[in-house]
Structures are given as structure tokens and as C-alpha cells.
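dumping this here so i dont lose it
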């Protein structure tokens, strides 16, 4: 079966990484894949090429649309004749559907990754694209979404596909796992020892991640004179970010806050944490929570998207935009004995193994593709 994966970009976002994970797990004797990015590929494009999977791009600039991209994609469909056009994210969903219907080539599967965003958080082109996708959602052969919350939201805004499948994110338990050597290495790098209690937040700088609430919770913990280390990483999470610098200075929390920027050793960083926190005001299915749980690290999350059902008793769930509740939940885990915390972490890893292992999720994709082609 030949599958063309069309995606908006190939940088380090959750959607791009999930595409990479799906491609790495699909049975090569049954599925032949190639990838097309709307804009020039980034880091994840290189990772996909390392799987010996071809990667192309349509030459668009971010935030723009060109009729030439539609023409190029249509020509590519005519030349390659894929059985399935699997699109990822709104812009690709719209472009892939129009090209497939125009050429009459391939079954179309949309992959929607977001859960809920306020209109002011969308750029104008994205907002228009989302409205068009809602109106055209009955035409794809299936729509995949990665969270139950996301399915409810998109149904509310007008999505009515003929087949709506919830396929959660999947996690490689061989890559994300407890790792004592990595724990010691990262802690040595950051200058604190194994006895220090360490809180991690791994998220790009984005209004949806609500770093301000996280820093307010750090200030709350400081008022209690507790020595806790806070490690943050992600795109835009460095000392050159004036907003982060402002919050750190305003809340007077510089001493134990470590800003690492964009890192490529996420499994090792997570393994060095005692708890991973997420202060988001909106999510679908955040990858970092599944990754942390796979590393046997308990999580403190806000009650947005599917976070509560993912954690499900293996960590703490608090309301969004409530720094005191976030801080108290972190403190409750910090006061557990090592044995109690390890037990909670093992329970978290087992939950990922049972419900969200990469093998299980890839099987969902394979079964869906086979069903669609056989119709």
C-alpha cells in the first residue's frame, strides 16, 4: 500500500514527532510511505530521511498559500498514485483534500491534532482554513484525532466526518524509560545532586502552555523556603526570551530555575526529573506527559484536553490558571518518600504500556488504512 503523508512542517512539534513515530513503526513489507512538507523540512525531516523514507517539500513560506503548491501536489499525486493521502494539520488537510478530489487519486485521511484554541490564538489564514475544513469534513474517507476532548471540540465547531477515529499518541517504551545514568549525567550538568527534588516543564514557549502560571507556582513554593530545582526546556525557553526573564526577575526566582532551550536529549532530561509539570490552558493529548510517565516520572497536569484521563491516578490534576493549586500538587509529590514516589512512577509507566504503547497505536493506523483501502 502506497501512502503519501502531507504535513505542514517538519520541525520539532508534537504532530511532526508523532508522524515520525508512526513511520518508524509501520510494517515496511505492507506499507510504502513518502512524506511531503508544505514548507522546507526541519529536524524531523532529517530523522524521517534516516528511516530511508523520501521527504519532499512544496516550497511554501510559513503563513502563506500559493496556487503553485496545489499544482505541484496535484502533479505529484498523478505521478505517484498513492492509495492513501494521509494529511496532518489543518492546512495540509485542506490542500490534500482539494488535490485528491481534483485528480481523483487516493483515499484521504485527515489527522487533526489540536483540541481547543481561542480564535485570537489563530493566525488569520489558519482561522479561515479551520472554517473551510469544518465545512468540507464530510469528504475525507476518515478523520483521525488524538484526543476525545479534541473530537468533542471539532464536532462542536462543525466537523461531521463519515468516520471519526480517536487514535491517541503512542510512546516508545524502549526509548523513554527510567535511566539512572542519564539522571546522574543531567544533574551533574546542571549542578545539583541526586537528593535534590527536581521539577521539569518541557514545552515550547506558547500562550497555550501558560508558562506565567508555572512561574507563579514557583514563586509560591519559594515562599515556603523549600529547596526545589526547576528545569525548563523547549523552543524559546532560554535566557534570551525577554518575557521569561521578566517573570523570573519579577518573582525573584532566579536561583533554582534552569532554562535549557531546545534540546535533543529529552528522554535523558525527563529521566533526571522527580516530577514533570504542565501548566497548559489548552491541550489535546500532550506528548510530554506520556513520555514522562513512560520514564516512571509522576506528572502534575492541568485539567485540560485528555490530561486527566491520561494521568488517571498516577499523578495530580489541578485547574488551569491556578498557580497555588499547581504548587500544592508539586509539593504533595515532593513530600512523598522515595519508595512512594517510585511506586507512583511505576504505576504511570505501566499505564502507558497498557494503553499508549507505540506498537499498539501503530496497529490502529495500520488497521484503519487497510479498512479504508478495502472499501
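and the seq i came up w/
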Amino acid at each position: 500500500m502506497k501512502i503519501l503523508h502531507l504535513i505542514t512542517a517538519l520541525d520539532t512539534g508534537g504532530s511532526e514527532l508523532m508522524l515520525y513515530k508512526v513511520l518508524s513503526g509501520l510494517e515496511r513489507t505492507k506499507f510504502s510511505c513518502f512524506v511531503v512538507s508544505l514548507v522546507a523540512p526541519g529536524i524531523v525531516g532529517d530523522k524521517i530521511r534516516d528511516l530511508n523514507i523520501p521527504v519532499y517539500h512544496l516550497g511554501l513560506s510559513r503563513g502563506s498559500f500559493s496556487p503553485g503548491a496545489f499544482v505541484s501536489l496535484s502533479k505529484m499525486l498523478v505521478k505517484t498514485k498513492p492509495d492513501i493521502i494521509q494529511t496532518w494539520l489543518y492546512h495540509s488537510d485542506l490542500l490534500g483534500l482539494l488535490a485528491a478530489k481534483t485528480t481523483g487519486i487516493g483515499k484521504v485521511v485527515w489527522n487533526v491534532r489540536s483540541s481547543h484554541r481561542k480564535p485570537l490564538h489563530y493566525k488569520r489564514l489558519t482561522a479561515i482554513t479551520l472554517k473551510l475544513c469544518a465545512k468540507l469534513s464530510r469528504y475525507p474517507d476518515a478523520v483521525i484525532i488524538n484526543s476525545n476532548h479534541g473530537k468533542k471540540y471539532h464536532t462542536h465547531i462543525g466537523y461531521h466526518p463519515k468516520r471519526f477515529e480517536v487514535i491517541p499518541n503512542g510512546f516508545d517504551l524502549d526509548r523513554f524509560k527510567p535511566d539512572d545514568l542519564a539522571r546522574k549525567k543531567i544533574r551533574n550538568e546542571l549542578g545539583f545532586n541526586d537528593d535534590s527534588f527536581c521539577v521539569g516543564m518541557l514545552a515550547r514557549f506558547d500562550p497555550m502552555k501558560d508558562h506565567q502560571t508555572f512561574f507563579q507556582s514557583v514563586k509560591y513554593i519559594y515562599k515556603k523556603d523549600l529547596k526545589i530545582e526547576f528545569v525548563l526546556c523547549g523552543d524559546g525557553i532560554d535566557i534570551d526570551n525577554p518575557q521569561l526573564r521578566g517573570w523570573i526577575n519579577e518573582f525573584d526566582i532566579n536561583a533554582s530555575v534552569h532554562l535549557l532551550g531546545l534540546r535533543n536529549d529529552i528522554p535523558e532530561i525527563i529521566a533526571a526529573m522527580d516530577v514533570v509539570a504542565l501548566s497548559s490552558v489548552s491541550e489535546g493529548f500532550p506528548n510530554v506527559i506520556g513520555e514522562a510517565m513512560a520514564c516512571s516520572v509522576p506528572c502534575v497536569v492541568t485539567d485540560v484536553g485528555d490530561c486527566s484521563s491520561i494521568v488517571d491516578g498516577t499523578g495530580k490534576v489541578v485547574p488551569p490558571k491556578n498557580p497555588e493549586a499547581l504548587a500544592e500538587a508539586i509539593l504533595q509529590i515532593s513530600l512523598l518518600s522515595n519508595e512512594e514516589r517510585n511506586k507512583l512512577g511505576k504505576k504511570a509507566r505501566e499505564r502507558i504500556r497498557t494503553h499508549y504503547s507505540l506498537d499498539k497505536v501503530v496497529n490502529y493506523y495500520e488497521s484503519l488504512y487497510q479498512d479504508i483501502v478495502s472499501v
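Residues 201 and 232 are 5 Å apart (CA to CA).
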